[in-house]
Design a protein that fits this description.
328 residues, mainly alpha, 2 domains, globular
């Protein structure tokens, strides 16, 4: 009696077809992976839209800065660098820069100190979620609405803040917005109230990522909470602080809404920051050529100062690594 094997019965089937192969082949994909151009095609509409709403206005801004742009027969006259050269003799332009730098420096200093302090207090506290929600509410208010709110709070007749400052001896009969000595600080209070929660939120996110083993090891060595913060937590949240400071720095250099609602640049130009002066030149006097020159210089200086901030506030540990410090 002859016994036939499976291979003899089915000669077309190999050992691999019967599952005897020792080599595992990856299963074939149902859908082949898309090519790189597929993702380019998907992103192309969004890129085109962003190009239209960013690149075109930027090019038009450069065009206007070299022209005398007006209405009627005197529109679009090429003047070269005349709009830029006139800025060096424009006292309001120079004063606007001084007020803007002063305003930005004070706002950033207060917001970073208060924001980081609030984040440290809120971190892992019992009512953290509720308090964070409450602290974020000023950010949800439109800047123009915040300006109108503080306009009534600063009112010299019925303003609550005016009564508090007057009771503490900081003010006389004049409102905080009615004096050239205090009007700028009144605007700074509005900005600090509305945007310090952003610093707190970003810093709090950084504190959540601080390695607990580093904190515990430092505490075992006898370090207190203050030493723990400066030696462990602060170096770990450097990237988060850098992002927060850059965001607020750029916002301060284009801040205009609350100022228009509170003072409009007064009294006596004491709150006419450079963005406010740019608004007046462009949309009050319709000198779009000079406005383009002011806006272009503001953009260039903002980029340069932003790069300087990145270098100054760079992570110290990364600086040591890049410089090849042997102690690192």
């Amino acid at each position: 009696m002859t016994v036939t094997t499976s291979s003899e019965t089915h000669p077309a089937l190999s050992d691999q077809d019967w599952g005897f192969s020792t080599i595992d082949r990856p299963p074939s994909a149902i859908n082949p992976p898309p090519s790189r151009m597929f993702y380019v095609y998907l992103a192309a509409p969004a890129i085109a839209l962003l190009a239209v709403i960013t690149i075109y206005p930027f090019l038009w801004l450069i065009y206007m800065s070299f022209h005398k742009v007006g209405f009627g027969s005197s529109s679009d006259i090429f003047v070269g660098f005349e709009n830029f050269s006139r800025l060096f003799t424009d006292t309001k332009y120079i004063e606007g820069w001084g007020l803007l730098l002063k305003y930005s420096a004070i706002c950033l200093s207060i917001q970073v100190v208060v924001g980081v302090a609030l984040a440290v207090v809120l971190n892992n506290s019992r009512y953290e979620k509720i308090l964070v929600t409450l602290f974020l509410m000023p950010m949800m208010v439109s800047p123009i609405v915040a300006g109108l709110l503080f306009f009534y709070l600063y009112n010299g007749t019925f303003g609550w803040y005016h009564w508090i400052f007057q009771s503490l001896g900081f003010l006389g009969e004049t409102s905080i917005l009615g004096s050239t000595k205090t009007a700028l600080y009144g605007i700074i209070i509005v900005d600090v109230w509305q945007w310090t929660p952003l610093i707190t939120l970003i810093t709090l996110a950084g504190l959540k990522r601080v390695p607990q083993d580093q904190l515990e090891a430092n505490m075992v060595d006898g370090a207190g909470s203050i030493s723990n913060f400066f030696n462990v937590s602060l170096p770990n949240i450097y990237p988060f602080l850098l992002i927060a400071i850059l965001l607020r720095f750029m916002d301060n250099f284009r801040f205009i809404d609350a100022i228009l609602a509170l003072t409009g640049g007064g009294p006596a130009n004491s709150t006419r920051l450079l963005p406010v002066y740019l608004f007046d030149v462009s949309f009050q006097f319709f000198k779009l050529g000079r406005g383009g020159a002011i806006a272009l210089t503001l953009l260039i200086v903002t980029i340069i100062l932003g790069l300087i901030l990145v270098r100054v506030l760079e992570d110290p540990t990364r600086k040591k690594a890049l410089s090849g410090d042997p102690d690192n």
